[in-house]
Amino acid sequence: GAVVSQHPSRVICKSGTSVKIECRSLDFQATTMFWYRQFPKKSLMLMATSNEGSKATYEQGVEKDKFLINHASLTLSTLTVTSAHPEDSSFYICSASSRWDEQFFGPGTRLTVL
Amino acid sequence: AQRVTQPEKLLSVFKGAPVELKCNYSYSGSPELFWYVQYSRQRLQLLLRHISRESIKGFTADLNKGETSFHLKKPFAQEEDSAMYYCALKGWGGKLIFGQGTELSVKP
User: Fold this and answer.
1) Within 13 Å of residue A44, how many CA atoms lie on the same side as its CB?
2) How many beta-carbon pairs below 8 A join chains A and B?
3) SS3 of B26, please?
4) I need a labelling partner for B11 at 20 to 30 A (CA). Which of A73, B54, B83, B103 fits?
5) How far is the CA of B91 from the CAs of A7, A65, A114, B3, in angstroms?
């Protein structure tokens, strides 16, 4: 089956620093990758949709300058949380899909900002 | 408007009892609906989608357009069914809109 990995699985950083999270599709080419944020026992909130080679489309209320998304290849997308603050602490999940197909989810990255 | 509502945050049943997890949606057009499951400390995974009309792990879900519902059912719950369940709607651009999730707890 299709496998999506995320790195790192957890990260702790100081307030004001930037953190990069990688999302990789290991055995298929992902034309589209999605980034979600999940709070404990809560729903997944879509942050942005990224298509390979083009700018990401952000959902309403998501700051594009704070959450930088790059989708440089068909197997890699990155989310950079810039100048992180404690309120950015969350579980970040990516998913990947080939054109119109099922989304496959990564295992998530736990971000803790001190 | 595109919206998915799961009215129950927590559903607790005993092993062997029937289970129904409710999901209602709002969508202008022909909806494509899914159920995802997230077991403890594991990634989100697809449980079933309405277009395939299949039964996975004994779960079924029928799309009722008149009631705009896509409830998930299982006749006899098992302890290993305990997990978070999310109903999702495929919206414009292929993005998924998730409900708030229902935690299913199956007691022995």
Assistant:
1) 28
2) 42
3) strand
4) B54
5) 28, 25, 36, 9
Nearest CA in chain A to B49: A102
Task: Name the E strands within chain B.
Answer: 3-5, 10-14, 19-21, 24-26, 33-38, 45-49, 60-61, 72-74, 83-90, 96-98, 102-107
The first and second tokens of residue B86, run together, are: 């999310």
- Residue B95, chain A, CB below 8 Å: the answer is yes
Residue identified by tokens 């998915």 is B4
* Residue spans of alpha helices (H) in chain B: none
Dist CA A2 CA A111 (whole Å): 25
Nearest neighbour of A43 by CB, restricted to B49, B95, B98 = B98
Q: Which residues of A touch B (CB under 8 A)?
A: 32, 34, 41-44, 46, 49, 57, 93, 95, 97, 100, 102-103, 105-108
Q: Please confirm whether the linkage preceding A40 is cis (ω < 30° from 0).
A: no
Q: Which two tokens stand for residue A58?
A: 């952000």
- Phi and psi at A34, nearest 5°, equal -120, 145
Band (B41; pLDDT cuts 50, 70, 90) = confident
The string of pLDDT tens digits covering residues B79-101 is: 999 999 999 999 887 789 999 99
